[in-house]
Amino acid sequence: MEGSGVAAAVWRGGETGPGAGERAGVCWGRPPAGPQPSPTAVRPAFKAVLFDFEGTLVDFQWQLESAHAELRAAYAALGFGGEEFVHGNYATMWNAAADRLQAQGRMDALRAALCPIYDRWDADALTRWAPRPGAAALLRQLATAGLRTGMVSNVGRRALGEALQRFGLAEWLRPVISRDEVTSMKPRAEGILRVLAEWQLAAEDVLFVGDSRADVLAARTAGLRVAIIRGGECVEADFAGDPPDFMISQLDELAGMVVGAKV
Prior knowledge:
Structural class: alpha/beta
CATH superfamily of the largest domain: HAD superfamily/HAD-like
Distance between the termini: 36 Å
Order of helices and strands: HEHHHHHEHEHEHEEH
Strand order of the largest sheet: 3-2-1-4-5-6
CATH architecture of the largest domain: 3-Layer(aba) Sandwich
Number of strands: 6
Radius of gyration: 18 Å
Number of domains: 2
CATH topology of the largest domain: Rossmann fold
Helix content: 25-40%
Largest sheet: 6 strands, parallel
């Protein structure tokens, strides 16, 4: 999904406060549960894989036309105008508004006015999201091979946390960065750079997997190679001007891409 103010406190699964992540099952700052790396299995071509969510690990269900119409009206009501608000999408409109209001110390006002609309369209998509075939199995396989896996998504924390739990994906993803943890959404690289700093990994050691041009642009800005899975937010022709490093049709194609020769 290509698509939130002053960076919020680290998300702990849709709640805030001590222990919220543990209650939601999205855990921060400790190793994930599940299979541990085999000491003699493979030498990974990457050290970590960073995923988008909607369109990548689940199908794309945001109703873009209707959502954009409502968001354009809401931004106009707040006094925002110009090319980026006439022709931009949900993410670039947010970023343009954040650029103006952050400097004025008014990000809380932007969140109060616009986040309920974004959250409502997330909640609508949540009623229809279904995981792509093999999503949980892929995350488990990458963890077994010794790779870190995380997420940077333009979906908000509430719907994202519920979906990751519902589909059995939360235990494999550390950290999870939603739009509520950043000032700017993808196609800007803020969320990706935040994960690289937390992991203390170089960009060349991480593969980003997404489904949109925003994913390509954000990953490239951060210096990551990027794989795009077909059938998400953008059609394949949309990538003609910004081709990804890899184009795949199924998630199970990633295993061979990120895992190198046997040791």
